[in-house]
Specification:
This protein has about 675 residues and is of the alpha+beta class. The longest helix has about 45 residues. The N and C termini lie far apart (about 135 Å). The model has no long low-confidence stretch (mean pLDDT about 80).
Amino acid sequence: MTDDATEEVRRLEGCVNDLTSILALPAIWSGRDAAHLVSTLLDALHRMLRLDFVYARLSEEGGDPAIEVVRASAQSGPGAGPREVGAALARSWTGGVLSAVARVPNPVGDGEVSIAPFRLGLEGDAGVLVAGSGRGDFPTRTEMLVLRVAANQAGIGLREARVLSAHRRERRRAEDDRLALASLIEHSSDFIGMATPEGQVFFVNPAGRRLVGLDGDDEVRTTRMVDYVPEEDRARVETYILPTILEAGRWEGETRFRNFRTGATIPMLHNAFVVRDPHTGRPLALATISRDITERKRAEENLRESERRFRMLAEAIPHQVWSCLPDGSVNYGNQRWMDYSGLTMDQSQGYGWTSRVHPADMEAVLMAWREAKAQEKPYYEVEKRLRGSDGRYRRFLSRAVPVYDEQGKILQWFGTYTDIEDRRQAEEALRAAQAELAHVSRLTIMGELTASLAHELNQPLAAVVTNGGACLRWLDRGEPNLEEAMSAVRRMIRDADRAADVIAHVRAMLRSSGAEKAWLDVTGVIREVLVLAQPEIQRHRIVMREALAEDLPTVWGDRVQLQQVLLNLIVNGVEAMADVEGRDRALAIRSEHGKVDQGPGVLVSVQDAGVGVAPENLDRLFDAFYSTKSHGLGLGLSISRSIIQRHGGRLWATGHEGPGTTLQFVLPV
């Protein structure tokens, strides 16, 4: 019994010593982080209790990563790292849940060990501590007591370490924020200043000091807030702005600053506010973030001046001037518009202007506007009728161009209405006169061809008479020869049709009716004119050379007008060779594929072998009343060019190195 008592006393003494060592650990841990805490704890337990291993895992918290540490006996073999030991222990716990003392495979060596697991922290969520030994009696009551006290001490120490870590992080974050704010203030291009609630300035950032002409902090501390504004503005600062900041807590607005060195004034935009004690709410300082708006003021003044000049110009020019927003709503109309429309500016605003557009023109107006808005065109242009204050409509050409911002977005449109009613009426009168003149030209040409046409008609009519007599003779026999009689009748019909064709072509050329456009085969029109001109060609002993393409696309035009042009070109070519002797009087006419403004077209050329035209006179051929013929009026080619131009084409003349001239025109297909 004495030996047992002595052994028990030694165990108790050892236990007390171990507990004393464990209880002394917090003094070592003071101010240290969790990783140091758990390392010293495991070193102490491993040494005191002569364990095979002791393992700890601390949970993640406050951004700190999880920590795993293990201490193992050297005789236990190379063992495994903290992560591998933790994974092996987790597999040994039923369902992955930490349980009481158990016998498990040794995670750091061979055989099995007894483990004693403990949760750390008041709620057991700070982590886990596991001690393991191969002894069969592990853990004894005294060992359990030491381990439990160690776990409790570790929980308390961990809580304190994590609170301290959080405080350090907070201080570090605050210091980082302070440094970032200081850097922002230091490098800001704005004026940033602070003053006492009484108005004594104690801080201005470098950009602010440069702006107002102060050298350093010593000069800043000698100034008051009112010193920064011109003398004439100080009463407003003292009686309105400062009281407003103190009462409302903030103020935004504009004032002027002055430069302490030069006295120059600077327009400023301020955002001023009160800095208060977060606990008591007592004002600690007045602060302002202010921006130099000199450029903005200059831009605003330039804009006002630009608008003033625009309105002066808009009122002075002889047009109706308007502007509208990107959505098409009008925001300005000059006095000429209001005088014509009878609308006030308020009535014209928005879409009120549409009440003056002729209903039949509204669809075209909307389509042109949609194309312009979609930027399919860089401008807006449309012709429309507008009702005046007298109730009558007049035709106007509406044009507008967009104004863009720096990003290419449309800000607004500026446009004009140009009265084109008188011009349109004059154009219509001119077209009517040209049509009459063209008719006279056709009559003149046909008058010149009268003798040839009479001869051309006499031939088929004489043939009809001859074949009629022959028919009567074949019938007036004792035994009529019906076959010969029928043959004579067929010849009579053929010659009569020929005469009828000539008369039909003459009647068509003599018509004075308006244009009747249709899809035409140009080669077919040429052949019709050649039939009509054949008597004149034969009378002048002209050799015709035709090169007429059969695969040409159709053109949109008036058959009679194009016949007039072709007949005029052919007659001119025939007459140009009237005095030619000693060589062929050849007239070549050709139709082929061509181009009009880079688009597909049909090209027709008439080339004579006459005396030719001097190069300097080629363009004059198309002037009214200019003629190379002694008896000519000089209107044929001028009228022909106007006809071709109205068809969207072009007529011109080309000289040759040898004899002759080529007249040619091209029409769009």
